[in-house]
């Protein structure tokens, strides 16, 4: 079992920045598939950014050049740095870590970007 706790969401004006954190209850040193997703009201949950096997990083087109995913193995934490935020970025953001064949999800953190 892995428990994930997201934090760092909030209300920010357009053009601002936020850094989301996803703290894992277990060491993430050996985990090689993790990511951030978001879900706006009435929409499906979509990938924002992911670190996959081999250390490759994928970003959604909407996130490229503005968001950065990173990990700190010593702190068992995955981050999402979000810059130049837009109202369209408003959503609940979730982190996911895959362990073996199982995906673990956090409870989500709300990000609201005002215009």
In brief:
This protein is mainly β and 115 residues long.
Description:
The chain has 115 residues and is an all-beta fold. 0% of the residues lie in helices and 53% in strands. Strands 2, 4, 5, 6, 9, 10 and 11 form a seven-stranded mixed beta sheet that branches. Strands 1-3-8-7 form a four-stranded antiparallel beta sheet, with no helix packed on it. It is globular and about 40 Å long. The N and C termini lie far apart (40 Å).
Q: How is the secondary structure organized here?
A:
Blueprint: E1 4-7, E2 10-13, E3 18-24, E4 34-39, E5 46-51, E6 57-59, E7 67-72, E8 77-82, E9 91-99, E10 102-105, E11 109-114
Parallel strand pairs: 2-11
Antiparallel strand pairs: 1-3, 3-8, 4-5, 4-9, 5-6, 7-8, 9-10, 9-11
E-strand count: 11
Uncertain ranges: none
The fraction of residues in strands falls at over 45%
What is the general shape? globular
Cα-based radius of gyration, to the nearest Å? 13 Å
The SSE string, one letter per element, is: EEEEEEEEEEE
- What profile does the largest beta sheet have? 7 strands, mixed
How many helices in DSSP terms? 0
Instruction: Please bin the fraction of helical residues.
Output: under 10%
The mean pLDDT is 96
Keywords:
115 residues; mainly beta; seven-stranded mixed β-sheet; four-stranded antiparallel β-sheet; 0% helix; 53% strand; globular
